[in-house]
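We modelled the chain as a single entity of 141 amino acids. Its sequence is:
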Amino acid sequence: MGADPFADRYPDSPAYRGMQPLRIPSGWTIGWNTLDVGMAENLAGIGGSSQFNATNRGTRFNIDVEFLPEFDPAGAFHITIIYQPWPRSEKGRRMKNVPFAFDADAEVVHHFETRSYPALIQELELWIARCTVWVKEENLP
């Protein structure tokens, strides 16, 4: 077997070089991340609506970052934090063997809007950390 021709290419790709470094503890699943450090200089070219999406199944939170309106230099970043309550038995206990999905019972627990990219990253990391340890609903005995 020869050397891997792609071994050194990805770290040097434009998609990787501009990627925003984030502190994300274990437990999170990143659905997508198109946050780029270059967004701080130019909001005009930001499109694709959702820029970042992560879910923590253990704590039942979802974090979504959007840029709205898309491709509008007057647009802003929006962070939305959603919590999905635990399904409960008739006795009010958490049901753990139910497939996890966000449904009509999901609730928005926080929303933040800013045109500042540094403020966006600060708020995003704050809420990733908070939602990693936040126990919104206690389990009944």
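As a brief sanity check on the tokenised model: The mean pLDDT is 88. The CA atoms of residues 7 and 13 lie 12 Å apart.
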